Amino acid sequence: MVFLQSYCEVNASISHTWVDEGIAPCFYFTLVPSILLTIAFFLGTVHCIFYQKYGTAMEPKFIPRSRLYVLQQVVSVLLLLQFLGGLVWRAASGGELPGYVVLYGCFSALGWVWAIALLRTERRRALVMDRTRGHSTALLLFWALAFSAENLAFVSWYSPHWWWGLEDDQQQVQFALWLMRYTGTGLLFFIGFKAPGLPRRPYMLLINEDERDVENSAQSLLGRADENQSTWQGFRKKVRLLVPYMWPRGSLFLQMLVVFCLCLLGVERAINVFVPIYYKNIVNELTDQSPWRALATTVCIYVLLKFFQGGGAGASGFISNMRSFLWIRVQQYTNRVVQVRLFSHLHSLSLRWHLGRKTGDVLRSIDRGTSSINSLLSYIVFSIFPTIADIVISIIYFITYFNAWFGLIVFVCMTLYLTLTIIITEWRTKYRRDMNQQDNNAKSKAVDSLLNFETVKYYNAENYEVSRFEDAILKYQVSEWKTQASLAFLNQTQNLIIGSGLLAGSLLCAYFVTEGKFQVGDFVLFGTYIIQLYTPLNWFGTYYRMIQNSFIDMESMFKLFEEDEEVKDVVNAGSFLYKLGKVEFENVYFSYTNGKEILKDVSFTVLPGQTVALVGPSGSGKSTIVRLLFRFYDVQGGCISIDGQDISKVKQKSLRAHIGVVPQDTVLFNDTIRDNIRYGRIAASDQEVEEAALAADIHDKIMTFPEGYDTQVGERGLKLSGGEKQRVAIARTILKAPQIILLDEATSALDTQTERNIQASLSKVCVNRTTVVVAHRLSTIIGADQILVISDGRIAERGRHEELLLKGGLYADMWMKQQQAQDSDSSSDTETKDRQSEKLQPPSTSSGHHGH
Fold it and tell me: Per CATH, which fold does 583-828 belong to?
C-alpha cells in the first residue's frame, strides 16, 4: 500500500540542500523538473506561436529523410515513458511515496511531451525568411539543461540517499533509470547540433530551386546555400587534411619538441592549482601570525609559482614563454609543409583551371589558409584543451575542498557559457564568411586593375577603377560591421554569465566566512581561483570563434586542395621513351565545354624530322592541337601518340622533357633576361645562355641595354617590346634543345627583317627535329613538308605549298589575300617614301635663269 505522507521524506525539508555529502534528493528532484518544465512551457509556447503565426507548412518533398531524426524521436519517447514508468514502479513498490517523487515524474513527463511537440513542429513547419536551419534555442537549451542535470547527480556520489551504492533492488532500478536518462539526454544534446531531419538550406531557396530550371539554377543556389552551412560540417574531412601537418613526420627532433611542449602544458595545469592554494596559505599565516621563517618560505614558493605561471593563467609566464619559444620550430614546419604542398598542388592543376582562376582570390586564400592552420593548432592544443582541463579540475577541487554548491555554481556557469557561446557563434558564422568573400572581391579587383595598368590608361578609366574599388571596400565594411556588432553582442552575453557566477560564488563564500565555516584565506582562495579560471574561460569564446574563423578561412584553401587534376598520370604510367619523333593524331575529338566541339575527327602524321604547318582562320583549332600534343588537356576521343606511345599513358614530365614550345603570347618572369632565358634549362651556363640568345637574334639587342643580361624585364616582361619578349622565348626553347618543337605563331610580333633572321635561326634549330608550326603568315611556312589547313575543327586540305596552290581551294584563297595585302602595303609604303622625298628636294631655280 502506498502512502503519500509528506512532500519530503521524514526528517527532511526542501530547504535542506546539502545532506550527508550530497545534494538533498527532495531539493534536487524539485528543482530540476521545475526548471525544465518552465523552459519547455514558456520558451516552447512562444516558439510554437511564432511558428504557427509566421511559418508555413513544408511540402513533404522538401523534408529530408533522416535516421538520426527517427532516433531523436525514439529517444524522446523512451525518456517520456521512463519518467512515467519510474513513477508507476515507485507507486507499485509499496511504502512511502514522497510528494517530490510525484512532482518529479509528472513535471518531467510534461516537459518531455512539450519537447517532443517542439521537435515535430520544427519538422513540419518552416519560417520562410529564416536564413539558417537548425533546432531552436528553446529545444537546444532544454536538452542541454536536461543533460547537465543528469551530470549533476555525480555530486552526490558518496551520499547514502542516492543510488550509487547499488545496495538493494530499489537503488539498482533507480540507477538503471538514471543510466537511461543520462544516455538519452546526452544523445539528444549532441545530435541536436547536427539538426537531422531539417532542411540544410532556407525553405525559400528550396521553393525557388524547385520552380526554376535545375540545370541553370543549381550551381548558384548551392553556392548560396554554402554560405549558411555550419563551419563544423565536414569536420572529419577537414581534420584528415590537417593530420599530416599536426605531427612532424621524419623529424625525431621536432617530435621530441612536440612531446616536451605537451609536458610543459601539464605542468602549467598543476601550477594553476597550487598558486591560489599558496596565496590562501599566506593570508591564513598572516592572520594567525605564523613564524617568519614559515611565512617567508610560503611567500617564496608562491612567488616562484607565480613566476612560472605569469600574470594570468598561462599568460607570459616562464613556462608559457618557454613553450612558445620551443613551438616556433614546429609551427614553421607546419607552415612550410602546407604552403609547399598547396603550391605543388596548384601547379598540378590543369590549364583550364588556371585560365579561369582569379589570382587575387587564390593568393588571399593561400595566405589566410596557411596562417589559419597555425592558429587552429595553437588554439586547440594550447588553449581549448587546457581550458577544459582547468574547468574540470576546478569543479572537482571546489566539490572536494569546499562543498557541492561551489561546484554547482561553476558547472552551471560553464554549461550556460559554453552553450550560448556555441549557439551565438554558429549564428554569426555567415557574417564572417560574407566578410571574407567581400574581402576577396576587393583584393581581386585591386590585383586585376594593377595587372591591367596599361589597359586602364589606354581607356582613361582611372576614376572608374577607383570607384569600383571603393564600392568593394564599402561592401566589405558593411559585412565587417555586422561581424563586429555580433561579436560585441556575444562578448556582453559572456560577461553577463561570468559576472553572475562570480557574484553568486563570492556571496556564498563570504556568508560561510561570516558563519565561521571558512577562513578568510578560503575566501581569498575562491576569489583568486575563480578569477584565474574565468580568465581563460573569458578567452574560451575567443578561442572558439578563432577556431571557427580558422575553419572559415581554410574553406577556400580546402577547395583548392579539392580541385581535381584534370590531366593525371595513369596508375603505373611509364616514362616516355624518345626514339625518332614520329607524331600521330588518330581520329581526335576534343571540346573545352560540352556541346561545342573544337576538333572533330582530326588525323595526321608527322614523320621524324619533318615540319608540319597548321594554318587556318582564328578559332579553327590550330593552337588547341599544340596544347593537346603538349598534353595540357586529354582528348575526348581518338588517340595522340609519339613513336607509337599513347601520350595519355606516359608520365607528363617525361613527355614534356622532350618537347619545346614557343607560345603565341609570351609571359616572362619578373627577373633578369639571363634567368628568363636560363629557364629553358636551369643548369645551363652563362655561355650557353648567350649562345641561345645569339641563335634567337637578340644577343646584340641585349648588349645595348645598360645592364645587359642582368636587365630586369618587369612584371610579365612589360619592359620589353613584343618582339623582344618573343625572341627571349625562342632563346629559352633553343636552350632547352628539345627533340620535338612546337611553334605557336612564334614570329607574329616581329618585324619583317627580324622575322627573316629568326626564321633562319629556327630553320637551323629545327633541322632533324620534328616540328609543328602554327602560322598566320603563310610566307613563313612555304618550305614545310606538309601543310594542314584547319577549318571548323577539321582538316580541310593537306599537302605541300605548291600542291595546295594548284588545288585552288581554301589555302590558295588565303595565299591570294595575303599577297594582295602585302602588295597594297608595299605600294602604300612606296608612295609615302616618294612624297617624303619630294618634300625634301630643294626648290627649282630654272625660272629665275629664264628671266635673264
Answer: Rossmann fold (3.40.50)
